[in-house]
Amino acid sequence: MSTNTVIDVEGLDVAYGDFHAVKDLSFHIERGELYALLGTNGAGKTSTLEVVEGHRQATSGTVRVLGSDPADRSVVRPRVGIMLQESGFSADLTVAESARLIGRLSGREDSVERVLGLVDLGHKADTRTGQLSGGERRRLDFATAVYGNPELLFLDEPTTGLDIASRDSLWATVQRLRDEGTTVVLTTHYLEEAQQRADRIGLMHRGTFRHQGTVAELTRSLPASIQFSLPRHAPAPPTSSVPQADASYAIETFELQRDLKQLLDWADTHGVELEGLSAAPTRLDDVFRAIGADSTAS
């Protein structure tokens, strides 16, 4: 394990009776990375995170977080911030009391006023949490997770229920923490967030990784797509074009720039207008859908 490795997982198995939710899973996360752990339904992502966060024991395998066993909460917890998918705040406590309580339980030092200011909840400090909107509770979740500027931050669906301004503010704070060396583990159903912000992605399916790497590495696993239609009486398009059910044509390619240029050169040579032309690189959601399609086929 390198001195820059914050999370090191080797051969992780998590079983519930005869059902193996996680099977021989191995990965590592380096200091300062934003790593997105994504998965199809039932992929084992939650079980993996529960072990890494110290909430569940592994059936087998080794897990080290910040150089220690994550179950050793007295050592690991003061260095880790966790934003769970659902808050567990007492409805009778005020916003300030909730932030102060969870901050003290974490073992980190900070100012309640500072963290509430980060999420624009300073004016709600004396409001009981039971009176907050869903978006305000999510902002309070985030405030308590970043209390004391943790070395490692887990964000589980952090922007669910947030408006655009709150999302932008959250990601600005995450970036500031990353600039200061914080490592971030993200889980989200908003794949565009993972595509835009993750340094690397682990994409789980049926208990193990189907893909792991940078966004560019994952999207290169599938071809890009060029689509167009031709006017009546146009000459036959290049042989790489495949006719579609709606009378349009598609070209699937791992060389998008080259094949698009060839198509445009062909159209120019023949004086043909390419109607409805679109050329789109592969996106992370395409990779995700392909995994789902494989599951259906199998």
Detail the topology: elements first, then pairings:
Layout: E1 5-16, E2 19-30, E3 34-39, H1 45-52, E4 60-65, H2 73-76, E5 80-83, H3 95-106, H4 112-118, H5 134-145, E6 152-156, H6 164-179, E7 183-187, H7 191-197, E8 200-205, E9 208-213, H8 215-219, E10 224-229, E11 242-243, E12 249-253, H9 256-270, E13 275-280, H10 284-297
Parallel strand pairs: 3-7, 3-8, 5-6, 6-7
Antiparallel strand pairs: 1-2, 1-4, 8-9, 10-12, 10-13, 11-12
Main features:
elongated, 10 helices, alpha/beta, four-stranded antiparallel β-sheet, 298 residues
Strand line-up of the largest beta sheet = 5-6-7-3-8-9
Q: Ranges with pLDDT <50 over ≥5 residues?
A: none
Give the integer mean of the pLDDT values.
92
Tally the beta strands: 13
Strand content: 25-35%
Tell me the structural class.
alpha/beta
Number of helices: 10
What is the string of SSEs from the N terminus onward?
EEEHEHEHHHEHEHEEHEEEHEH
The backbone outline, from C-alpha atoms, is elongated
What's the helical proportion of residues?
25-40%
Measured between the Cα atoms of the first and last residue, the distance is 37 Å
Rg (C-alpha, Å): 24 Å
Biggest pleated-sheet summary: 6 strands, mixed
